[in-house]
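User: Can you model how ribulose-1,5-diphosphate sits in this protein?
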Amino acid sequence: MENVLEIAEKIRSMEIRGAGTIARAAAEALKSHAQQFDGTKIKEFNIQMSQTAEILVATRPTAVSLPNAIRMVMGYTGKTVDEARTDLIRRADSFIKSSKDATRRIGAIGSKRIRDGDTIMTHCNSQAALSVIAQAHKDGKDINVIATESRPRLQGHLTIAQLNELGINTSLIVDSAVRYFMKDVDIVVVGADAITANGSVINKIGTSQLALAAHESRTNLIVAAETYKFSPRTLLGEMVEIEERDVLEVMDSEKLSAMLHVSVRNPAFDVTPPSYIDVICTEVGAISPEISYIIISDILGWDLQDMLDEEIKA
Ligand code: RUB
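Assistant: Here's the modeled complex, given as structure tokens:
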């Protein structure tokens, strides 16, 4: 069984990546830590689990699926270590299962937006977006995909490998060719790392310029996202932190250090406004970005008043 620090490092270094996968890995890590705990004192168990949760939450700041998953698993109860451990494991297993089910349901819902003969553009590597594309193909629709490279980490290469495996005709393009090819695109499908209370979508850097190009050419853009990608804390006015990663992902240090007046910036995500989004396909239905608040309150069960009271108390 892998230890929590190893899993945390894999998330940080992006060996484990993509918002849904990160969330499931964190649930798995909490479960495995609970299984490995060999003490008998419930207080010690609770302390260790909270520390583990903190380590996992700190790995990557943007994907809200991570704190949402951890909160669901850490809601365990129990007066003894055995009771608490059993409840925690049940919650982790249930989160992992419902997360996988959600991705499948999103595929079934989102694929209805794809028509026979469509050319679909996608960005980065999103399992939820790929579920939509895969389902459309499975339904017998003749589709083509244009996939971006997604610099600097080239997640587009993962996407084209998955699409190739499914037998879907795919073209790989550099990120800067998005507008050039938009005239050939019928629909854009992307995933999400976080969705705010006002319906803005945070996804891989470059998504917002892709959305802008789609908007300009009146091409629909759909977001495929599980409900645990919605960010409750944005209801309190908090902003989603945009991760800025190591500059060495963009340029090697020797080249960079030879240029005294140059710095490199490497934000990993950007924000697409709701006005550029046609629909968000979740496992509970295809919704307009404007009703994100209802997902946070009614589906995720967050109460604004409780959150405010908690914040005042803290
Ligand atoms: C991945 C990314 C994906 C979302 C959604 O970024 O932006 O589009 O996480 O993915 P990174 P999924 O590679 O930096 O983690 O639908 O698989 O949750």
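A couple of observations from the model: Residues 81-110 form the longest helix (30 residues). The domain at 106-299 is CATH 3.40.50.10470 (Rossmann fold).
User: Helpful, thanks.
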